[in-house]
Amino acid sequence: MRIIADANIFVSAALGRSPQSPSVRIIDAALDGRIEVVMSPALLEEVADVLSRSRIRKRLSADDAQLFLADIAAQVVRLAGRSSERLPRPR
User: Fold this and answer.
1) Residue 87 lies in a domain
2) Measured between alpha carbons, how far is residue 61 from residues 14, 52, 80, 90 in Å?
3) Which of 27, 48, 81, 87 has the fewest Cβ atoms within 10 Å of its own Cβ atom?
4) Which domain holds residue 6?
């Protein structure tokens, strides 16, 4: 099954504390290969931007954000479109 998830799903999962929260369950299913998440390069960049914000940084380190983005980027089905050649790095 393929799904399209909003940036909020990814951000909520990155910050998620409960393995039972819906956003964490969606991302876990994608990482386990039970579902395919379709994502545009612009959406990946948006998620990276949000994860780099200071209010998010209080709850998620830059290293953890980068690991999360790398895991997601490795598993999602990317649509063609505008993107940097490299994975966006949270500031």
Assistant:
1) no
2) 11, 9, 30, 9
3) 81
4) 2-78
60 CB contacts (<8 Å, ≥6 apart)? 14, 15, 51, 68
Q: Is residue 22 part of a domain?
A: yes
Domains of the chain: total: 1
* 6, part of any domain: yes
Among 42, 41, 48, 13, smallest CA distance to 29 is for 13
Residue with tokens 């099954």: 1
Global pTM?
Answer: 0.80
**What is the rounded end-to-end Cα distance, in angstroms, of the chain?**
33
Residue 29: which residues within 8 A CB-CB, separation 6 or more?
35
